[in-house]
Design brief:
Blueprint lengths: L14 H4 L3 H4 L4 H11 L4 E5 L12 E5 L3 H4 L26 E5 L8 H11 L4 E6 L14 H10 L3 H8 L2 E6 L2 E2 L20 H5 L9 H17 L1 H6 L7 E2 L3 E7 L4
Parallel strand pairs: 1-2, 1-3, 3-4
Antiparallel strand pairs: 4-8, 5-8, 6-7
Length: 261
Amino acid sequence: MSGGRTNDSAGDADYGTIGANYSTYRRPDPRIMSAIAHALGDSKTVVNVGAGAGSYELTSMRVTPVEPSRAMRAQRPAHLAPAIDATAENLPFADDSFDAAMTTFSVHQWGDVTAGLAEMRRVARGPVVVLTCDPDLVRDFWLHSYAPRVLEAEARRYPALSDITAVLGGDVSVERVPIPADCTDGFNEAYFARPERFLEPGARRACSAWSFVDPVTQEQYVSRLREDLDSGVWDQRYGTLRQQASWNGSLVLVSAVPQSG
C-alpha cells in the first residue's frame, strides 16, 4: 500500500518492482480485518488512502480507494472499485465527504505524513483509522539479529505514534494488534513463527524494507538464516514461537474520532 508520488513508485519505495507479486504474499488477514472493521464502526462510506491492491477494504461499506502507484492499481481485483490516482497529501475530495477514512501499511510511504493525516481528518466526518507499526518496537523482532539493516529501515521509516495521534486529535486510541501465527498478510512480523518464508525471494520482495538493502547484503542475511535453520540453531533460540497462536509485535491500530461539540 502506498500514498506518495504518482507513478509506478510511491513514497521512497519502487512499487513498480516490489509490487509485482504483492497480492500473492500480502493477502488481507481476516483477524486483522476484524479489528479494522470494529474501529470503523457503522460507517457507510470510507476513503482508503494508499489502497494498494485493495487489502482490508470491507465490501459491506462503500469504499473509495486512493492509490498513486500504477503497478498497485493494476492488481486490484475486479470486484473492488477502481482506485483514484492521487496522493495522501492532496486528496481530491471536499471536507467531510466520507463517514470515515482508513489507511493500512501506508503512512511510512508518504512524503509528508502530517499533511496526509490532516487530509484524512479533513475529508472524514467520523473515525480515521490507521494500521501501522510502532517504530519503537520494530527492532524487538528476532529478524533484527539476522537482517539488522532491514529492520533499521523499517524503524526509520515508520512515523512515531505520538506524531500520528497529535495530528489526528480528538478521542484517540492506540491498540496493539495480535499477529496470528498463520497470518495471510506477509509483512515481516507475520512470519514470526515461520522463519522459512524469509528464504523465499517473493516473500522478501513483498516487504518494502528489504528493498533498502543491497542484494549482496540480503543474500548474506538469508544465508545465515538458512544455516541456522538447517543446523537447528534458530529453533534453539526462537523455536517456542512455533507453538504460539499469535504474537504481540509492533503492529498497532490507531483510531481517532472527532470530539463532539
